[in-house]
Amino acid sequence: MKKSEFTLKEIAHQAGLSLATIDRAINSRPGVKPSTRKRVKQALRELKSQQDQIFMVGRKFMIDVLVEAPDRFTELLRGALEAELQALNPAVFRCRFHMEEVIQPERIASQLRQIGLRGSHGVILKAPDLPEIVEAVDALVQKGIPVITVVTDLPHSKRLAYVGIDNRAAGETAAYLIGTWLSLPKATILVTLSSAGFRGEEEREMGFRKALRQDYPHLNLVEVSGGLGKNQATGELVAHALRQNPNICAVYSVGGANMAVLQAFKECDRKLHVFIAHDLDVDNLKLLKQQRINAVLHHNLKIDMHTCCRLIMQANGALPRQEINPLSAIQVITPFNIPVV
């Protein structure tokens, strides 16, 4: 690696590794695993992007952000968090990011245990609601490290709070929009989830199904899951559903990969009357501007990240105990009211 502008101690702290390991990696000495070199390079990128924070004076917080999600969403979340760091002054937040598109549950649990061993002021977590992950979260909390879940919750864990939208209300909102806009007397709506393991997605689907059954009983529903938000897998699932169900003419996309969803409709020569999606990521912004999707259910990730940091400060005694509302407002974004993100 080329010479760094940061000290070995700063890099070690950011990477969560020993000084000796950092020294070997920086100086290209043998005995360093490829995964360790990758972590060191990532730490250097994080230090660079958070450089303004390094020399600020104020109480310092080192937090870990562990997220399983497609790259288009993790970049959105990373940008939102880093944009809020300056607004937290005089507190100084530094972030270690652990973000991948697909992470095996046992590896998520292992990463949480590693965070517990090296210490952290708090963890922002997006992960499936599985027993081994809940157990690892509870172990962190027992060590005095607060955990905040975002986008999707682990309600049976000892996490400090869930920050994000009310997912059931989001599903109900999607049902209202599709039910109002879809004028066909008999139609089937396709609901796409990335994985049944994410409780937030499950709650959106449950809210959608409940509202549909209650207010629009003439509309049917077909669900596909398991594409993990990736284009090829999601496209194949959608194409199969279209071949099996000739009445599908609307989509509520909970799990993303919307370019692939639209491509599947095109290849199957099927008309799509209404398309509701989540999150203003790069793909959805493009599709919204092209009017290929009708609306995006959006919430301000910058506000979410600010709330997470305030909760971590509060848990560490840096803010007085007062109620902080962790729920975000659901915004219905159409091609004509796209905000600056």
Defining traits:
341 residues, alpha/beta, 434 Repressor (Amino-terminal Domain), Rossmann fold, six-stranded parallel beta sheet, six-stranded mixed beta sheet, globular
Structure notes:
Helix 5 packs across helix 13 and helix 10 packs parallel to helix 11. The protein contains 13 helices and twelve strands. The longest helix has 17 residues. About 45% of the residues are buried. It has three domains: about 50 residues, 434 Repressor (Amino-terminal Domain), CATH 1.10.260.40; about 140 residues, Rossmann fold (3-Layer(aba) Sandwich), CATH 3.40.50.2300; about 130 residues, 3-Layer(aba) Sandwich (Rossmann fold). The two termini are about 35 Å apart. By secondary structure, the protein is an alpha/beta fold.
